[in-house]
């Protein structure tokens, strides 16, 4: 391999790593704004849906949050699916009487299955999806439903604010990543469509809810149905949800592997419809999702290219560089905070995502989940 090819490989790897976080946002900012066109309508009715598994510790605060929301919106329908919890989560929900309509699953069947059960029973014009450990601000429902005054809007995402960013390097990196993600969604929304939602807080018109297998990532599948239907999927900054960050590396690693595996499986399931999207939406989807999923490969190719180039320049340079990398990783693994720990957590995140994608490519997927103990 010539020095030129090595340099090209190294440059291409760095470019691909930086694309979702630097070049893609710059391109989005250069695109024109696509304004909304609201009309005078009566606000639609809404159903709030969430699934839970062994979330007894989060239920008192969650149920109090729901009671506050229903006090402000007497017509708000709330439904919950208990996915075979063994810690009394379902009993805590049932004890609240008619505050929440509870559906108990027969055992572990997964969030996608549970959400389909809830959506089939919901009566609201708009389905609002959230997680069992997520709390909504008091004006979140009002602000969310107001965006449906534009008939072209088929789905609305909220803004997730994480709590506990200073509790560990893992939490700090997760918080930074999510702030970047939120800004990207803001820019995508301003220019047309956001390309996919996460499960913390998003909504769609009930008549757009799709059919899908239990093995897919339901929040991505359901939110993308809005784009496939030719409606706008937008983000509302004033619809605020709050959630505690995962602080343990093992918990975060397992979570990212699970999410990545299901995301790739979902990508394969949606591929025929993805190909039919407008060019701008295909560009957004590839930039924010596909390029990130393979970030681990870009790190590996960049490391190999850098090491090869260093060896060709000087074996001593290669040895010094390798030792510096090893010491940095060693320090980061031992540290609980600081730049070295943050660097290790970033590498772990890329490794977990790549593992999940490879897992899905080999035919394996994950349908159930466990709440993180370090949240």
Q: How would you explain this protein's 3D organization?
A:
The chain has helices at residues 3-30, 59-72, 89-94, 111-121, 140-146, 169-190, 218-228, 249-274, 279-293, 295-313, 315-334, 339-361; strands at 46-52, 77-82, 101-104, 126-130, 135-136, 153-163, 201-205, 232-244. It has 375 residues and is α/β, with parallel strands linked by helices. The protein has a domain at 46-247: Alpha-Beta Complex (Spore Coat Polysaccharide Biosynthesis Protein SpsA, Chain A), CATH 3.90.550.10. It has an eight-stranded mixed β-sheet with strand order 3-2-1-4-7-6-8-5. α1 (3-30) crosses α9 (279-293) and α10 packs across α12. The longest helix is centred in the N-terminal third of the chain and has 28 residues, at 3-30.
How would you summarize the topology of this molecule?
Layout (H helix, E strand, L loop, with lengths): L2 H28 L15 E7 L6 H14 L4 E6 L6 H6 L6 E4 L6 H11 L4 E5 L4 E2 L3 H7 L6 E11 L5 H22 L10 E5 L12 H11 L3 E13 L4 H26 L4 H15 L1 H19 L1 H20 L4 H23 L14
Parallel strand pairs: 1-2, 1-4, 2-3, 6-8
Antiparallel strand pairs: 4-7, 5-8, 6-7
Keywords: Glycosyltransferase, Membrane, Transferase, Transmembrane, Transmembrane helix
Family: Belongs to the glycosyltransferase 2 family.
InterPro entries: Glyco_trans_2-like (IPR001173), Nucleotide-diphossugar_trans (IPR029044)
